[in-house]
Amino acid sequence: MKRDDEASDSRRTLLAGLAASAASAIVGCSRAAARSPEPAPRGPRRKWGLVIDLDRCSRCAGCVVACQQENNVPPLGPEAAARTRPIHWMDFLPPAPGNSAATPIPCMHCEDPPCVKVCPVGATYQSPEGITAQIWERCIGCRYCMVACPYARRYFNWSEPRWPGDDPSSLNPDVVPRPRGVVEKCTLCHHRIRAAVERARVDEEALNDEALRWLPACAQSCPTRAITFGDLADPESEVARLAASPRATRLLPQAGTRPKVIYLRETK
């Protein structure tokens, strides 16, 4: 009888151990699936961001055009634009009362992005380096993220992308055109960032801050160098130095999203 009790206790111990192992495996898989599809960077974690100097900005809209071309954002044309909202990953806010100048505005790439929290399928996520990214193929077009974004920086594709003359030869091969029925937004030219990081890794060299400053298309095209890009986590970077300026400010700080796009107030 004693042996039977000992055998029963052993079986219970074994079954409990197997159940605990299975539960641990399930939790581990769930956590792995919930992670962003990008591996964590080696070494100190970067935090990509932009600083836009409103004193330097001439409102030429060169950044808007460069962004459209670089990221394969199709023109809607006057008829479609009259029916719906044109897609501009980089756009201009109308002048505020008492202010005569418009404000350039990309996605804010918030440190606490509300759009990520509401996406039911994980189509939008925050990369390990702080970019609020989007997986176009996973998006189901529910537009919850558009409602959650306090800056209105997301756009829904109501139609299939088309280019003048139906000629796709001018498209950037590094950026996938988005299909009808998905939401799209600025990615800080993530394809350029990944190419620069990979090039530095292959060459076994550190990323050069000077090479990063005007890496995105908007920054590269700005004739007055009003837009500066870089690693906000690097205190020696130009973007971190500008972000620490007494002129630095963020849009809608009361929203609590902590944008990584920072503005330098006008002094003129």
Explain this structure.
The chain is of the alpha+beta class and 268 residues long. The chain folds into two domains: 34 residues; 221 residues, Alpha-Beta Plaits, CATH 3.30.70.20. It has a four-stranded mixed sheet with strand order 8-1-10-9. A two-stranded antiparallel sheet has the order 2-3. It is globular and about 45 Å long. The N terminus is likely disordered.
> For the largest beta sheet, what order do the strands appear in spatially?
8-1-10-9
Largest sheet, strands/sense/barrel: 4 strands, mixed
Radius of gyration: 23 Å
- The poorly predicted ranges are 1-5, 22-41
Count of DSSP-assigned helices: 9
Q: Report helical residue fraction.
A: 25-40%
How far is the first residue's CA from the last residue's CA? 94 Å
| String of helices and strands | HEHHEEHEEHEEHHHEHEE
Beta-strand fraction estimate: 5-15%
Q: Count all strands and give the number.
A: 10
Broad structural category: alpha+beta
Which fold name corresponds to the CATH topology of the largest domain? Answer: Alpha-Beta Plaits
**Total of domains:** 2
Mean pLDDT reading: 86
Question: What is the 3D shape?
Answer: globular
Key descriptive features of the protein:
268 residues, alpha+beta, Alpha-Beta Plaits, 2 domains, four-stranded mixed sheet, two-stranded antiparallel sheet, 9 helices, 12% strand, globular
